[in-house]
Design goal:
alpha+beta, five-stranded antiparallel sheet, two-stranded antiparallel ribbon, extended
């Protein structure tokens, strides 16, 4: 009897100790609710819809075009010209038709020129060359500058007066040279060919045609100037 009571007490203690052990087992792995099987989809109430989303109808799939065929080149020797080398020429007219020539521009007749003065009556006027019409007379427009011709009167001088600068002393030396005479000034040779002066009634202005030569250190003579020189007053 004692064994039965002891065994019963031991079984009760074992059952009582088993309950807390089951509670601790659940706390270790969490008390999460059981998960549904994987083959069960969410219900209609579980779907979340965006209120801003619009219902877009399904776009029908269009017809698929076939791929373009590759450009086939004609085999050599068939006589077909390659693309881009075709030449064109006008067709010949059908037989029995007459070809109309292209119209030529009508020839313009030259107006008869006015008779030249001074010819005796009955003499034929010379023909004017075609296309050589006399140029129109020049007219002065407002704002044009009028250039007057130089005066016909001039005074011929027998001598020309030159002014030379001495580079060593810095002085200006004046010397007279006869027309056609050669005078050496330093390393230069001066020879006036002509000298003219305006008359006393006009502003003083002298023109002279001068030839200037230079003597180099090797003793060679070189022409460095040949032309007209002028001296105006004051100056």
């Amino acid at each position: 009897m004692l064994r039965s009571v002891t065994f019963a007490m031991f079984a009760t203690v074992a059952i009582a100790a088993a309950s807390p052990s089951h509670a601790q087992f659940g706390n270790i792995f969490g008390n999460n609710p059981p998960r549904p099987p994987g083959n069960v989809g969410p219900g209609p109430q579980d779907r979340i819809q965006d209120p801003d989303a619009e219902d877009v109808p399904d776009i029908p799939q269009g017809r698929i075009l076939p791929a373009p065929l590759p450009n086939r080149q004609p085999p050599p020797g068939t006589g077909m010209p390659p693309p881009g080398s075709v030449q064109t020429q006008p067709l010949a007219p059908p037989p029995g038709t007459m070809i109309v020539p292209q119209q030529q521009p009508p020839a313009t007749a030259n107006a008869p020129s006015a008779p030249l003065p001074g010819l005796p009556p009955g003499q034929r006027q010379p023909r004017a060359a075609p296309g050589n019409a006399p140029p129109p007379a020049a007219t002065i427009q407002p704002g044009d500058e009028v250039v007057s011709a130089p005066p016909a009167q001039k005074v011929v001088n027998k001598q020309a007066v030159f002014s030379g600068l001495d580079k060593i002393t810095g002085r200006i030396i004046k010397f007279d040279v006869d027309i056609g005479e050669t005078v050496q000034f330093g390393a230069l040779r001066v020879k006036p060919q002509a000298c003219y002066t305006r008359p006393s009634t006009e502003a003083a202005n002298t023109d002279s045609f001068v030839e200037v030569e230079e003597i180099t250190l090797q003793g060679e003579v070189k022409r460095i100037f040949s032309g007209w020189m002028f001296a105006a007053s004051p100056g």
